[in-house]
Design a protein that fits this description.
- By secondary structure, this protein is an alpha+beta fold.
- It has one domain: VirB8 protein (Nuclear Transport Factor 2, Chain: A).
- 37% of the residues lie in helices and 25% in strands.
- A four-stranded antiparallel sheet has the order 1-2-3-4.
């Protein structure tokens, strides 16, 4: 037989053609389905009028808030005693969270996101998409990059976790109003 795949005598030419056609159609369907699901990342690459509503200044401010939040995540130990977490939250996240989200996390420290152990720890948020319905409400999605001392010394990322953040204009300015961090993969 050599390098040839196993031969199936019941697989006629027409059956092979039908199988190939079905495979091509399935892959084409998956491809077009995925493309229509991907959110637009910026006004420059979007033909959707809804995605281009936020001004460039607003988008820059939102990116700065999300990136700052990502840098601050390592400063909140979610394994610390409840009272310690409650004290840390306003000091670390007070300038980026809405008053309502901050109050929720203080009331329920188990809802807060942050450092979940000594290693690995969250280092930053890489923003994948920033979608704005209007200038006052946006959704940022991306990944939290986690590192260990090995990545500090040699570069790289230990693992990534998907994150989505809702942002809105509040009485204090642009703030994060909701956070969803995907569980770590095992």
């Amino acid at each position: 037989m050599g390098c040839h795949p196993p031969y199936n005598p019941r697989m006629t030419s027409s059956k092979r053609l039908m199988a190939c056609t079905a495979t091509v159609l399935a892959l084409a369907g998956c491809s077009s389905h995925n493309e229509s699901q991907q959110p637009q990342s910026s006004a420059a690459t979007s033909s959707s009028p809804q995605a281009s509503v936020a001004t460039a200044d607003t988008r820059a401010a939102l990116r700065k808030i999300v990136e700052h939040f990502g840098l601050q995540m390592q400063k909140v130990s979610t394994l610390a005693p409840t009272e310690a977490i409650r004290r840390e939250l306003p000091q670390v996240y007070g300038d980026v969270l809405s008053p309502e989200l901050l109050a929720d996390w203080k009331a329920h420290p188990d809802h807060a996101v942050g450092r979940e152990g000594s290693s690995p720890w969250p280092a930053r948020i890489e923003i994948g998409h920033l979608d704005c319905a209007h200038d006052d409400a946006c959704r940022a999605t991306g990944n939290v990059d986690y590192i260990t001392s090995n990545e500090v010394a040699h570069g790289g990322v230990f693992m990534r976790r998907a994150i989505s953040l809702q942002l809105a204009r509040t009485s204090l300015g642009l703030r994060i109003t909701a956070v969803h961090l995907e569980p770590a993969r095992e």
